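[Discussion] Sanity-checking designs against the backbone

I'm trying to build intuition for which residues belong where. Below is a C-alpha cell string of 455 positions. I'd appreciate it if someone posts a full sequence so I can compare it with mine line by line.
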C-alpha cells in the first residue's frame, strides 16, 4: 500500500503555552504543541483558572479511562461549555446521572438498531449523489461542506426518519458553527478568568435557534406517536421514547429526549464529517490506494449498494479509515478532572486539576509508532502490528467510549462506497489543507478535491 506524509502543522521548537501563548493559539490548540509534546510522557501548563496536565503515558491513559473512570470524571468545564445546547446528556455528565442516561441511550442505540437505520443511511447517500450531480464538477468540491451535509442528514434521518432539507441544513450548520465559536471563546475566557458575558449571551442565542428547530420535531412526535411508537419504530427517537430505566421503570421526559437529540446531533455529525473529509483528501493524494479500495468494494458488493452483512468484509476500507482516524482523530483530546491529590509520574497533581488524555499526541507519539506522521493503512491490516494498548483511541476507551462508533463505521463505509463507485477523486493542484484543532480536528479553509464521474 502507498505511504506518504499528509499535512501536519510544524510543531514549535519550544512550547509557548502560557497565558499569552494560550490566547494566541486559542483558534487551534495544535499550534501550541512543540516537538517535545510528541515525545514526553507527561506535560503540564498552568492557566489562571486551573493547572493542566497532558497524560501521554499509556499506563495512565488506561488507568484514567478504563480502570478508574469514576476517579477521573469528565471535566466540569466541558459540561459548562456545552450545557446551553445539550443540557444534561451523557456526553458531559458524570456519576449516577450519566449511568442512567447511558443505560437509556444504549437501548436506543444497540446493534439491532444499526441494522434498522441502515436503509435510512442508504437513502441519505443516494441524496448525496444527487447533490453531486447538480454541482459543477469542473470546479473543486468543498468536501468538508459536502460531508458535513451528508453526515448531518444521516444523523437527522436516523433520529427522525425524515430527510434534512437543503435550507434547513444550511441554517442548522450556521447555528452549530457559530455556537461552537462562541462556546470555545467562553471556555478560553473562563480558563483565563476573563469576563464571558457577551460570548455567553451569543452562544445561548445560537443554542436557542438549534433547540427551537429540533424541539419542534421532538414535540410533534410526542404529540402524535404513542403505543410505544407504534411498536418501537426504526429510528432513534423511537428508541429514546420507548427506553425504560430498568432500575426505576421511568421513561425519558420530552425535555430529556430533546437534550439527547441535540447531543447526538452535535456528537454524531461533526466527528464523522471530519473523518470522511480527511479520507477523501488522502484518497485524492493516493491513487493506488483508491484503486485498492474500489477493487475491494466491487468485489464485496459488485452491484453497487452494500448490504448490512457485507460491511464486515471490507478490510481495506476499515484499515484506511482507522489510519485516517489515527492521523486526524476528530476528538483531539479528552478533558478529565482529578478527584483527589495524587502523584502522576513524579508530578504532584491536586484535586480539581485538569488531566488531558490526548489522542492527537498519542497517535503520533514518537515512542509508540514507527514513522508516526506517515499515512500507512498497512499498520491496521496486519494483526501482529496491534497498537500498544492506550495509544490508539479515536473513539475513546472504557466506560465513556463512543456510543456511536459502530454507527460511524457503518456510515463511513456507505458514504465511501457511494462516492468511490461513482467518482474518481483527484487532488486540486496547489491545494493543501491547513490542519486546525478546535472542537474537532478540521482544515481551516475546508478540504478541496476534484470529483470526476466514472465512465
Ligand atoms: C468518526 C466518528 C466519531 C468519532 C471519532 C467519535 C469519537 C468519540 C470519542 C473520542 C468519545 C469519547 C470522548 C471522551 O472520552 O471524552 C465519544 C463519545 C461519544 N460519542 Fe462519538 N465519535 C464519533 C461518532 C459518533 C456518532 C455518529 C455518535 C452518535 C450518533 C456519537 C455519539 C457519542 C456519544 C453519545 C458519546 C458520549 C458517550 C458517553 O460518555 O457515554 N459519536 N465519541
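Best answer:
Here's mine. Compare freely.
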Amino acid at each position: 500500500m502507498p505511504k506518504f506524509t499528509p499535512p501536519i502543522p510544524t510543531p514549535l521548537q519550544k512550547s509557548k503555552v502560557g497565558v499569552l501563548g494560550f490566547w494566541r493559539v486559542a483558534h487551534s490548540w495544535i499550534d501550541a504543541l512543540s516537538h517535545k509534546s510528541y515525545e514526553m510522557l507527561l506535560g503540564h501548563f498552568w492557566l489562571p483558572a486551573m493547572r493542566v496536565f497532558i497524560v501521554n503515558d499509556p499506563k495512565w491513559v488506561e488507568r484514567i479511562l478504563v480502570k478508574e473512570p469514576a476517579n477521573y470524571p469528565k471535566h466540569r468545564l466541558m459540561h459548562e461549555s456545552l450545557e446551553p445546547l445539550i443540557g444534561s446528556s451523557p456526553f458531559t455528565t458524570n456519576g449516577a446521572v450519566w449511568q442512567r442516561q447511558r443505560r437509556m441511550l444504549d437501548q436506543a442505540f444497540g446493534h439491532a438498531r444499526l441494522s434498522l437505520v441502515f436503509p435510512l443511511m442508504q437513502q441519505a447517500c443516494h441524496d448525496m449523489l444527487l447533490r453531486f450531480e447538480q454541482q459543477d464538477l469542473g470546479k473543486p468540491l468543498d468536501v468538508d461542506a459536502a460531508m458535513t451535509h451528508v453526515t448531518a442528514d444521516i444523523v437527522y434521518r436516523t433520529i427522525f426518519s425524515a430527510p434534512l432539507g437543503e435550507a434547513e441544513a444550511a441554517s442548522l450548520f450556521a447555528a452549530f458553527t457559530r455556537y461552537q465559536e462562541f462556546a470555545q471563546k467562553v471556555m478560553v475566557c473562563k480558563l483565563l478568568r476573563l469576563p464571558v458575558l457577551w460570548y455567553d449571551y451569543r452562544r445561548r442565542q445560537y443554542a436557542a435557534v438549534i433547540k427551537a428547530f429540533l424541539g419542534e420535531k421532538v414535540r410533534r412526535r410526542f404529540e402524535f406517536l404513542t403505543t410505544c411508537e407504534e411498536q418501537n419504530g426504526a429510528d432513534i427517537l423511537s428508541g429514546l421514547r420507548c427506553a425504560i430505566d430498568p432500575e426505576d421503570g421511568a421513561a425519558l421526559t420530552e425535555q430529556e429526549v430533546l437534550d439527547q437529540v441535540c447531543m447526538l446531533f452535535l456528537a454524531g455529525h461533526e466527528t464523522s464529517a471530519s473523518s470522511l473529509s480527511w479520507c477523501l483528501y488522502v484518497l485524492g493524494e493516493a491513487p493506488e490506494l483508491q484503486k485498492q479500495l474500489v477493487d475491494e468494494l466491487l468485489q464485496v458488493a459488485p452491484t453497487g449498494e452494500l448490504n448490512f452483512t457485507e460491511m464486515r468484509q471490507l478490510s481495506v476500507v476499515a484499515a484506511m479509515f482507522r489510519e485516517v482516524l489515527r492521523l486526524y482523530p476528530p476528538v483531539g483530546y479528552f478533558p478529565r478532572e482529578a478527584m483527589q491529590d495524587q502523584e502522576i509520574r513524579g508530578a504532584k497533581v491536586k484535586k480539581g486539576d485538569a488531566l488531558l488524555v490526548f489522542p492527537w499526541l498519542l497517535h503520533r507519539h514518537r515512542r509508540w509508532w514507527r514513522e508516526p506522521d506517515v499515512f500507512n493503512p498497512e499498520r491496521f491490516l496486519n494483526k501482529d502490528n496491534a497498537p500498544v494498548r492506550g495509544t490508539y483511541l479515536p473513539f475513546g476507551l472504557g466506560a465513556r467510549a463512543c456510543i456511536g462508533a459502530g454507527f460511524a463505521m457503518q456510515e463511513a463505509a456507505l458514504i465511501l462506497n457511494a462516492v468511490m463507485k461513482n467518482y474518481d477523486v483527484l487532488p486540486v493542484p496547489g491545494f493543501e489543507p491547513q490542519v486546525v484543532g478546535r472542537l474537532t480536528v478540521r482544515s481551516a479553509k475546508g478540504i478541496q478535491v476534484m470529483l470526476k464521474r466514472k465512465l
